[in-house]
Specification:
Blueprint (H helix, E strand, L loop, with lengths): L1 E13 L6 E3 L26 H10 L3 E4 L21 E3 L4 E3 L5 H10 L3 E6 L6 H12 L5 H8 L10 E4 L14 H18 L4 E4 L12 H10 L5 E8 L7 H5 L1 H23 L6 E9 L33 H16 L4 E7 L8 E3 L5 E3 L3 H10 L3 E8 L2 E4 L2 E4 L1 E8 L2 E8 L5 E6 L5 E9 L18 E2 L6 E2 L1 E6 L3 E9 L1
Parallel strand pairs: 1-19, 2-3, 2-11, 3-6, 6-7, 7-8, 8-9, 9-10, 10-11
Antiparallel strand pairs: 1-14, 4-5, 12-13, 14-17, 15-16, 17-18, 18-24, 19-23, 20-21, 20-22, 20-24
Helix pairs in contact: 3-4, 3-5, 5-6, 6-8, 8-9, 9-10
This protein binds alpha-L-arabinofuranose.
Alpha-L-arabinofuranose (AHR) binds next to loops.
């Protein structure tokens, strides 16, 4: 039988709230037609949709990365301040950028949904000097050109942005202003130095590889870190999963196996650089783009990109509006488990993205909003994956996947104030029984949620609650050991209170 042992004495590390961040890019209908739509019936005075604001606020993401993404590398932040807002071509996504939403508007919106902004500086067409000026604009109190300009633009107090990304995916040839690792390492270090001279308290994320499939991975990460090590706080990881290697649902649900390997390799690479530099500092990881992203049509997900003639050079065209099904949600729950299991090194993260573009929240222009299947495991991570990550010892069958041998059942656990939250996925085609052993803790199960059913069932505007977590009756007795049923192809969250 499958068995999971959880012993609260075997701690991994505290789970940082920032691991459950998300991302909004000026891409597709994320901003225009997503969060911002002045003509929408629920739009508030600031032009942002009230219905979307409500749903995002309820989700409770602690931090939102902004404004890109590939968009960032051609973006001039000065276009998004003051009264003169030029309309520009966004070369990254082939759409029009009206610049109606800029730093001020986005910060106010993020604050209204209870999130902090993780700001990014353009190191494609942008310079270290402009990056430092942006920090001055956002974070310097007053009495200088940029800080006083911010105040004249209506924001007296600094935005006090504490997390900053040094560019985006600069290893990719698709990136505007793409650089070699040497070139980027030097430029990022220079930007980091100047930005921290403006505000010594900010935390900086340097671009790691945009995927482990890059030819330059992991040398890119090592070279970049050699240049920047003492001036940055995190290295970024980006990773999306799809059916690219196989069409088996089991393989997609086993994405966590590759995610584990990616995170472990970046840790090893960073530690190798640390050793070479004789540094005392351990580099932390920011997984600031992760998700399931279908880039070719599969099952019910047909619209994978949509860069067609009608959509080109319009404001808020459809881009990457993936429809997610139950299998995608189980795969995403597996990735959530991996982030928890690596809480010792992964200190920040962003589910990419939040609204309309490969997103858990979908909107209709002028109309409704609904939650995709993937909303739920992410929402449960935000709500319950807190406190300390605890090691889970899993005894289950190993099966072959495109990512190598992998567990049939995969799990992660957190412990917070006497409450265990156990996240489990069952990837097999059979209902399974699993023994749970809490070692020295006597616990009572208080809640249990399941997402199970038809593997390709999905939600849409007409059927928004087709796939939702179901609250299953919790076991009533107190014990150190339980035997639970895990439906095939499912995600289960169980909560246990220590007696
Ligand atoms: O999140 C969508 C895109 O994926 C981002 O713009 C880019 O950074 C990544 O390739």
């Amino acid at each position: 039988m499958n068995k999971i042992i959880v012993d609260k004495e075997y701690e991994i590390a505290p789970v940082e709230r920032d691991v459950w961040g998300s991302f909004i890019e000026h891409m597709g209908r994320a901003v225009y037609g997503g969060i911002y739509e002045p003509t929408h019936p629920t739009a508030e005075k600031d032009g942002f949709r009230g219905d979307v604001r409500k749903i995002v606020k309820e989700l409770g993401v602690p931090m939102i990365r902004y404004p890109g993404g590939n968009f960032l590398s051609g973006y001039d932040w000065k276009d998004g301040i003051g009264t003169d807002r030029p309309r520009r071509l966004d070369l990254a996504w082939g759409q029009l950028e009206p610049n109606e939403v800029g730093i001020h508007e986005f910060n106010a919106w993020a604050q209204s949904v209870g999130s902090r902004v993780m700001m990014s500086v353009n190191l494609g067409t942008g310079t270290p000097r402009e990056a430092a000026q942006l920090v001055e604009y956002c974070n310097f109190e007053k009495g200088t050109y940029w800080s006083d300009l911010r105040r004249r633009n209506g924001r007296e107090k600094p935005f006090a942005i504490d997390m900053w990304c040094l560019g985006n995916e600069m290893d990719g040839e698709w990136q505007i202003g793409h650089l070699t690792a040497e070139e980027y390492g030097k430029k990022a270090d220079e930007a980091a130095k100047q930005m921290k001279w403006v505000d010594k308290d900010i935390k900086l994320v340097v671009c790691g590889s945009s995927s482990p499939s890059m030819k330059t991975y992991p040398d890119w990460d090592a070279t970049v870190l050699r240049h920047t090590y003492e001036n940055v706080d995190y290295i970024s990881l980006h990773r999306y999963y799809s059916y690219e290697k196989s069409e088996r649902e089991f393989d997609l649900m086993s994405s966590h196996t590759d995610f584990e390997a990616f995170i472990s390799t970046v840790c090893a690479t960073a530690d190798y650089v640390k050793a070479g530099l004789r540094s005392k500092k351990t580099m932390m990881l920011s997984v600031d783009e992760w998700n399931v992203w279908h880039t070719r049509p599969v099952f019910n997900c047909r619209e994978v990109y949509s860069d067609n003639d009608e959509a080109r050079w319009t404001i808020g065209p459809r881009r990457a509006e993936n429809v997610y099904d139950l299998t995608d949600a189980v795969a995403l729950a597996g990735l959530v488990c991996t982030l928890i299991n690596h809480a010792d090194r992964v200190k920040a993260g962003c589910l990419a993205q939040l609204v309309n573009v490969i997103a858990p929240v979908m909107t209709e222009n002028g109309g409704r909003v609904y939650k995709q299947t993937t909303y739920y495991p992410f929402a449960m991570a935000i709500a319950y994956a807190k406190g300390t990550a605890i090691r889970t010892a899993i005894n289950t069958q190993k099966l072959e996947s495109v990512y190598g041998d992998t567990e049939k059942i995969y799990a992660a656990c957190t412990y917070d104030n006497g409450v265990f939250s156990l996240f489990v996925i069952n990837k097999s085609d059979e209902n399974e029984t699993c023994a749970l052993d809490f070692a020295s803790s006597v616990v009572r199960m208080t809640e249990r949620f399941e997402m199970a059913g038809q593997p390709h069932a999905y939600n849409d505007f007409a059927h928004p609650d087709n796939v939702v977590p179901v609250r299953v009756k919790a076991e009533e007795w107190s014990s150190r050991k339980f035997e639970i049923r895990l439906p095939k192809h499912s995600f289960t969250l169980m909560r246990f209170v220590e007696e």
